[in-house]
Amino acid sequence: MKTTPEHNERIASMTFSSVFPHYVTKVEKKGRTKEELYEVIQWLTGYDAQAVQELIAEKVTFETFFQNAKLNPNAHLITGVICGYRIAEIDNTLTQQVRYLDKLVDELAKGRKMNKILREA
Q1: pLDDT digits (tens, 9 = 90+) for 59-72
Q2: Sign of the CA dihedral running 96, 70, 112, 50
Q3: CA-CA distances (angstroms) from residue 100 to 41, 42, 57, 58?
Q4: By the 8 A CB rule, do 42 and 53 touch?
Q5: What DSSP letter does each residue of 100-119 carry, written as one string?
Q6: Comparing C-alpha atoms, which of 17, 19, 18 is closest to residue 99?
Q7: Residues facing 61 on adjacent strands
Q8: How far apart are CA 34 and CA 96, in angstroms?
Q9: Residue 116, Cβ neighbours under 10 Å: how many?
Q10: Strand, coil or helix: what is 84?
C-alpha cells in the first residue's frame, strides 16, 4: 500500500496529544503500564516522560514532534505491517516515523518482551 500526499499531510498535521490517550488505553487494556509506554517512546525519540507531557501540553503536531526528536539509530530495525502499510516501504520519512511509534505501541500491547521491542540483542 502506498501512502498518498493527502494521507501524509493528515499524519503531519495530527497532534500528538490527540493520539497519546489512545496509546495509553491500548497498552493498559492489555495489562501494560504507562511507564512502559514512556520507555518505548523514549527509546524511539529520546523524549523522557516529562518532555512527552510538555509536548502534549503544547499540542504539537507529529511533524514538530519528530522534527525535534533524536530518533534511535536502531529505528530502522522496526519492520512489519501496521495500519495496512509495510513500514519499510513507506517513502515519506515522517509517516514512516509515526508508523514506527505505532508499531512499538502495538508490540507493547501484544505483550512482546521489552528487550525485543527496544531491539536489544
Answers
A1: 999 999 999 999 99
A2: negative
A3: 10, 13, 23, 22
A4: no
A5: HHHHHHHHHHTT--HHHHTT
A6: 19
A7: 15
A8: 23
A9: 9
A10: coil
Helix (H, G, I), strand (E, B) or coil at 86: strand
Q: Where are the domains of the chain?
A: 5-114
pLDDT 10s digits, 66-98: 999 999 999 999 999 988 889 999 999 999 999
Q: Helices marked H in 30-112 — which ranges?
A: 34-45, 49-58, 62-67, 93-109
User: Global pTM?
Assistant: 0.93
pLDDT on residue 121: 59
Q: Which fold has domain 5-114?
A: Helicase, Ruva Protein; domain 3 (1.10.8)
